[in-house]
Amino acid sequence: MNKDLQLAIVIINWNKAQEVLHCVYMISSWTELKAEIIVVDNGSSPEEASLLLNSKFRFQLIINENNRGYAGGNNIGISKGIDEGFPYIMLLNSDATISEYCLRQLLECISNSPELGVVGPLLDEGGKNYAGGRNIGIHSMTRIRYNPQMSNSDLINVDYVPGSVLLARREAFERAGMLFEDFFFSGEIADFCKRVQLRGLKCAVFTGCHASHAPDADSTMRDTLYSYYTLRNRFLFIRRHFRYSTLFWSMRWVVEGIEQIMIALLKGNRARAHALWLGLRDGVLGKYGDRNAQFIS
Fold first, then answer.
1. Are 69 and 290 in contact (CB under 8 A)?
2. Which of 141, 200, 210, 280 makes a 20 to 30 Å CA pair with 250?
3. Distance of CA 211 to the CA centre of its chain
4. Cβ-contact 161, 90 below 8 angstroms
5. What is d(CA 77, CA 8) in angstroms, rounded to the nearest whole number?
6. Helices (H), 138-269
7. Can you give the pLDDT at residue 117?
C-alpha cells in the first residue's frame, strides 16, 4: 500500500462498464485526496470486461467468472483493501456521485470518532435528501427523509447506512465480518450494520455534506430482480436477527407480500406480481443466495 493512501474505494461492475469508468474518472480527478480504486467485475459480458481491461485509468481490476452478487462482489474488494492495509474502505455504487470535499469530511468525521464504525453522507435521490435507513425487518419504507430538525448534531445514528455511499473503518469488518452472501442483492448492508452495532460500534449519517444517487431506472429490473430480493431478504434478515420473534415478523411480511402481489395484479403488472410471489415463497422456504436464473434467461 502507498503510505500516502489511507482509503480504498470498491466499485462493482455488472454490465455497466461505461458507468463504472465515469465513476473512476470522477475519483481520479480529485486534486488532494488520493484513493486506491478497486473495481470488481461481477461476471459481466466479455465486451464489458474488455472495456475495463483497456481503460486508460489506473485502478485495480478483479474479474469474477460468475456474478457473486452485491455482497460477494464487494467482499472480494473489501478483502483486497484489508489485505493491503487500508484503514478505511468505501463502498461506492457506480451510479452514485460524491465530491472530494464530501469524502474528506466523512474521513475526518470517522477518524475523529473512534466509536463510529460506519458513516455515510446525506443522499440525494431525485431531489430528496435521505439520512440512512431503519430496520428492514420491521419497516416497509426504510429510507429516512432528512429534516434539519431531526438532530442537534451533525451525526445522526441510524440502523443502516446505504451501500450506495458507505465509508467504514477496517475495524468494523474485523469485528463484524464481511457481507453475508446469502442476501446476494439487497439487505446485506442492513445486516452488516446491525452486526457492527451489536459489536459495539455505531453507524451514522453525517449531515455536513451530501452525495447523490441515481438508481437504475430500468423498470423491468425493478419490477423483477429488485422486487424479488427486497421481499425475500427481509425473511433472511429476520431469521438472523429476530431470534425470539421470527414467526411473528415473518407473518408480518407474508401478509404484506400478499398485499403487494394483489396491488401489482390490480395494476396489471404481472411481472412484478410473479417476482413478489417467488420472493415470498423463497423467503418462507429459506431459499437464499443467487436466484437470478428465475428472471434472466
1. yes
2. 200
3. 14
4. no
5. 9
6. 170-176, 188-198, 219-221, 227-241, 246-266
7. 98
Q: Is the Cα dihedral 8, 13, 17, 23 positive or negative?
A: negative
Q: What's the whole-number mean pLDDT along residues 202-222?
A: 84
CA distance to 64, 98, 116, per residue, from 203 (Å): 30, 19, 6
DSSP-based three-state secondary structure for 30 = coil
What angle, rounded to 10 degrees, do the helices at 227-241 and 246-266 form?
170
Name the pLDDT band for 3 (thresholds 50, 70, 90): very low
Say how many C-beta atoms besides its own lie within 10 A of residue 34's C-beta: 15
Contacts of 156 (CB under 8 A, 6+ apart): 131, 132, 150, 204, 205, 207
Cβ–Cβ < 8 Å for 271, 223? yes
First-last CA distance in the chain: 41
In this predicted model, which residue has the larger pLDDT, 60 or 222? 60
Alpha helix positions (H), the chain = 17-28, 46-53, 69-83, 100-111, 170-176, 188-198, 219-221, 227-241, 246-266, 270-285
Residue 88's Cα: distance from chain center in Å?
A: 16
Q: Is the pLDDT of residue 297 over 90?
A: no
Taken in order 85, 90, 95, 99, is the CA torsion positive or negative? negative
CA atoms of 214 and 204, how far apart (whole Å):
21
Q: How many CA atoms lie within 13 A of 131 on its CB side?
A: 19
Mean pLDDT over the full length of the chain: 93
Residue type, 23: C
pLDDT score for 220: 64
Report residue 100: phi and psi, to 5°: -60, -40
Question: What per-residue confidence (pLDDT) applies to 219?
Answer: 60
